[in-house]
Structures
1.
Amino acid sequence: MIHLFFNALAASAGAGLTYVRNIIPEISVRKDARATIALAPDLRREFANPTNVTFIELAASGTASRFWREQRVLPKIIRQVAADVLISTGNFALRKSPVPQILLSGNSLYTSADFYRDLRVRHNYGEWFDTRIKAIFARRSVHWANITVSPSQSFADVLSDWTGHEITSIYHGFNKEAFFQDTTPLPPDVQWKINSANGTLKLLFVSHYNYYRNFETLLRAVPLIRERLSGRKVRLFLTCKFKSGQNPGSYRTEAASALVRKLGIEEEVVELGAIPYRRLHYVYRAADIYVTPAYAETFAHPLVEAMASGLPIVASDIAVHREICGGSALFFDRFSPVVLGEQVLKIVSSQNLAQELKNFGGVRSADFSWREHIDKIVGIAQALCAQRN
């Protein structure tokens, strides 16, 4: 039985949390692998004591301090637990890993010209500089690791061009049964907001607030959609709030909040706030269309969740979205609220088109499996051990 050591100290929001929450159940039922997982104490409390999995709790505040602590502390721990292979899940590898290392690289911001341009426009030069520094270490990490894995072929191609290294693509997964199984109701205030939108066109975007998800383009599309709905109302559900301190990271929400007021769409924009992952299915199934204007992505789990929930999708036209969605989405130029609105209205005006997108999404969502993801990761780890021996 191979012993995998997962460094999940960077899992604090979004895809990182989704990854950890889904791989643990898969590893716990395997006969050919066991795992030691290093993670933050708050995340450890989500799990009981699964079979085949041992947890090591380490406080990890801030990227820089976490990175240097990992470089100094983790090699010793990996030797102590006698792990066979290290899997670094947070874009940064150990410079001198005591065992073969698989790097999971899934942050498109380091390579995104749009993101750097966005930060300059917002005069957020501190974030610009911070991202540039992190990008240096992320790029070096590809050289330090034995194998680097990307969650999509589109991003693998970008990484390969950026680093000059061959990158392996392995899709992240989706567990439909687990995603829909929790019957715990939504908080009453959230359920009330959803119920109050009955009879309206309900759009949904699942994301905490950040710049690269391009909220402003989506907000600008709302009044355009409203004007052409012939009296029918529209509501945009967001799983975040435009309030400082209520979203992960240091992204400032004041500009987005001011834009809502300027456009006069306070009634149309419904800020649900963060929804527990296991209860997200209620929100998807309450919506009519899933929309995403993101200009940078590496996989986009909500797209798979939306497809599995039977939602047609309107997505920004970037390579990752086309790869993941295929025929389940209509696409628009990532900075065009006009075309975004037109694509939404196409779906609204054609039941046949909406049903066609839903049907394709149902089939496409079945292509993503956490079990297959772990199968491939374990296969790579076994091959690295064989080479070492």
Note: The chain has two domains: 2-173+369-388, 176-365.
2.
Amino acid sequence: MSVTSQIALTLRAVGGLTTAEIARALLVSESSVTRRITRAKQTIKASGLPFAMPAAGEAVERLDAVLRVLYLIFNEGYASTAGPDLQRTELAVEAIRLTRMVHTAPPADSEVAGLLALMLLIHARHLARTGPDGTLIPMAEQDRSVWDAGEIAEGVALITGTLPVGPTGPYQLQAAIAAIHDEAPTAAATDWPQIAALYDVLLQSDQSPVIALNHAVAVAMFRGPQAGLELLAALGSDTRVSDDRRFHAVSAHLQEMSGDRRGARASYEAAERAATNLQRRRYLHAQVARLDADAE
């Protein structure tokens, strides 16, 4: 059974996610996820293996898949891909709870601490991410006094204690990026060059198009929108992300920063069409309406 099949099956069983939600999380088609889950179930049934904790050696080998499942469950809770609400807080909280359990159980692993730190640092912002009616509030516009100082302090302490010990993995790098965001007193004071440098390192081991999108934003924030748009152009042929809401939304943001309001409007419309979450569609529609109003 492939690792991806194991992840898909576990997301269904533990996270309670639908096939469509799993597909969006893994950046694959829904039919592919259905086939993988079916094959995984058949493999487990045919093996006759009992449901039990793995031996110590096997636990180390399986840890990466476990962490990825927990991260994907958390992401679906923090930024729901579908439905009427931007967040499914109960999923994010459960992912944090399970990650704490993994963190306290052997074998000790710095990436477990990195993932827990990442979740805490991101979840610390969740109360500021939506308005009274549930609408999305971008990070740059959030009231940072609402961010959870306790979760930020715990997350920073975890990543500060983990980075100097052993090899640095992708969850630790992402946690370091989240810590820079959380410790900045204002959006304008964010250390974008440092964030871009960390994404550079992260891309060396993880070629995820979502990471590449975030890298493009970070570069644009200190080198200018055109530099970010040039990086996005290279992603335009990646079918995993070229039709994704995030790609079009980032394009729109950078196009607007560069003064290309017509291009930004078209990209916001494309992002709205691709969005599967109601609150994101509302936000993207509002951006189109704002550009239209400004043009009058």
Note: The chain has three domains: 1-52, 58-188, 191-296.
